[in-house]
Each structure stands twice: as structure tokens, then as C-alpha cells.
Design brief:
Layout lengths: L1 E6 L4 H12 L3 E6 L4 H8 L2 E4 L5 H13 L3 E7 L14 H22 L8 E5 L11 H21 L4 E7 L5 H4 L3 H9 L9 H12 L10 E4 L7
Parallel strand pairs: 1-2, 1-4, 2-3, 4-5, 5-6, 6-7
Helix pairs in contact: 1-8, 3-4, 4-5
């Protein structure tokens, strides 16, 4: 059986990605700083590592867990990320640096550590965001996720032809965070989506599963926007 490593897998989009890849027949190694990753792993009957992808010792522990796994590693999904949303004029430097360090730096570090362990023909899928096109209050997040797209293309060139590297860019997706938004703010966002609905975690999981599969064997260095049309509206 092939192994898929999924970061940020404790809940939300990451958990949905893990579940979808399990349906596709992959063994799983889940990674998250959130201690609930162990609950998710027990529910899915798979392994887990509680780790911070922005910390080198933790990246090393993840790589060690991949080496020790009995199944052949073939897929890495870099989904882990954080937000520190503020209007630009109110953004503190630590909030800027933290988001870039985790969302971009952590994605780079883990790919560098795990890519050499992936079997030939394997796939790396990074989670970027439609926010890289610009969202008020997400200056740091947009920069980091735009950097993930640049990283995706750079790694696609550097790791070819042995591995494929692509990205999925979600838009407004149902989550704990979006559920807490005021109703009027949420309505304004959804009204701006051409498909007139918020995305579901499963929508993102389906995009990831396709890019990770043999059906996308001639696709690398690409960004798949799963945002209901918001990338061009």
C-alpha cells in the first residue's frame, strides 16, 4: 500500500483530505500541532505525529516517522497553516513573520525533508489559497500563500521527472473559523462567489485526490483554484 502524509490533518480541510485519500486506498500518516490529530488518527485507524512544521527538530521527527512506516511513501500534502488576520496598518511584525514562517517556510522545510523519501512517480500537493490574489485583512496570509505557488513551481522543476508538484487554491470554505463570522459578513462573501455557495472541505479534498492520482500523471507545476469562480470575479 502507498503512504500519504497529510499535514494540518486534525480537522477541517486537512481531515477531509485525509479521509478522501484513505478512500483512494492510501495508508496515512497525519501531522498536526493540534493534539486532536491523535483523535482523528484513531477514528481513521492510521498513524499520527504531533509536530510543528516550522521547527526543524519536528520536521526531522516527521521524516523519521515516514522512514519507519511500513508502507511506501508516495504522496505529501502540505496543508498545515495558520492565520493572524489584521488590517495592514494594525499588523504587528510577529504576526507577519509567524504566518510566513509556518505557511511558506514550513511547507518548504517539510518538502525538502520528505521529497527524497517519496517513491519515484510520487506527488506533492501544496495548499495555497485564493487569498494570494488579495484579501483585505490577510496581507501576511496572502503573501505566504502566494509564496507557496512560487514554491510549487520551483519544486516542480527541481524534482522533475521523479516527482510531480502541484497546488490547490481554495476560496471561501465552510470551517470553524467561517462559521464564527457575523451573518452579514458571511452573506457578503458568499454573494460575491459566482457559484453562489461556500465551498465544502470535501471539494478541496477531491481536488487534492485528483492531483495526487495517476489521472493527473502529466500535470506538474500547476495551481488548481477550487473557489467557486472567485479567482476571476
Amino acid at each position: 500500500m502507498s503512504l500519504a502524509i497529510v499535514t494540518g490533518a486534525a480537522r477541517g480541510i486537512g481531515r477531509s483530505i485525509a479521509s478522501r485519500l484513505a478512500e483512494a486506498g492510501h495508508a496515512l500518516l497525519l501531522v498536526d500541532l493540534d493534539e486532536r490529530v491523535h483523535d482523528t488518527a484513531r477514528e481513521l485507524g492510521v498513524g499520527a505525529v504531533r509536530a510543528d512544521i516550522s521547527q526543524p527538530p519536528d520536521v526531522g521527527r516527521i521524516a523519521d516517522a515516514v522512514r519507519a512506516h511500513r508502507d511506501e511513501p508516495r504522496v505529501l500534502v502540505n496543508n498545515a497553516g495558520i492565520t493572524r488576520d489584521r488590517l495592514l496598518r494594525k499588523m504587528a511584525e510577529p504576526d507577519f513573520r509567524a504566518v510566513v514562517r509556518v505557511n511558506l517556510g514550513g511547507t518548504w522545510a517539510l518538502t525538502e525533508a520528505v521529497a527524497p523519501l517519496l517513491a519515484d512517480g510520487g506527488s506533492v500537493v501544496n495548499i495555497s489559497s485564493r487569498a494570494q490574489l488579495g484579501n483585505v485583512g490577510q496581507f501576511n496570509y496572502g503573501i505566504a500563500k502566494g509564496g507557496v505557488i512560487g514554491l510549487t513551481r520551483g519544486h516542480a522543476l527541481a524534482l522533475a521527472p521523479r516527482l510531480r508538484v502541484n497546488a490547490v487554491a481554495p476560496g471561501f470554505v465552510e470551517s470553524e473559523m467561517t462559521a464564527a463570522m457575523p451573518a452579514d459578513a458571511r452573506r457578503r462573501v458568499v454573494d460575491a462567489i459566482p457559484l453562489a455557495a461556500a465551498g465544502q472541505p470535501r471539494d478541496i479534498a477531491e481536488a487534492v485526490a485528483w492531483l495526487a492520482s495517476e489521472a493527473a500523471s502529466y500535470v506538474t507545476g500547476q495551481v488548481l483554484y477550487s473557489c467557486g469562480g472567485r479567482s476571476f470575479s
